[in-house]
Amino acid sequence: MASWYSVGIAGLMFLLYQWFREDPLKELSAGKPMLPSVLVSICVLDVIANKVQLPQPLLYTACWIYKFIFEIIVSIFVLYLTMNIVWNSLETLIVLTMRIILCGYRLLSEETYKRYEKYWIGGITLPLSLIIWVILSRPIFCMRVHLIRNIDNAMKYLERTFQTKKAPQKRPIAALR
Q1: Mean pLDDT of all residues in the chain?
Q2: Any idea where the domains of the chain sit in the sequence?
């Protein structure tokens, strides 16, 4: 598992990168709501923190600073891959599809679409981001529930074991002679 410190630093570095970079599709990204992107990025950071494993040679032979730098580099790479390539492409596809369907088929006028564009796009991307969050966090949740279930079963076994064993009976002194 990657440490939360390195994943947090990678998240902040990625956020700064997103903030300062030039966006070639600025017109398309103007109508996108931020909440779905934030939910997906939090989910990706959680998956990175729980699933990234260090290679065995690095795990046992390297100094802690090398491990830390390796975790930051891998976290930034995975975050960039999922957010910029997968999620932004999906969001842009949704924006274009909604514009084609609503304005291209003249279901809405252009000014009405522009006025409520964030609501139209958010109506699709927010449930999609919640579905992604549930799908990606399900194995982690099941692992935690499984661990809690095993602890409960172990406690029940220990309680049963100690309740069935009776304390040794005291024998009368006369019976020992």
Answers
A1: 80
A2: 4-136
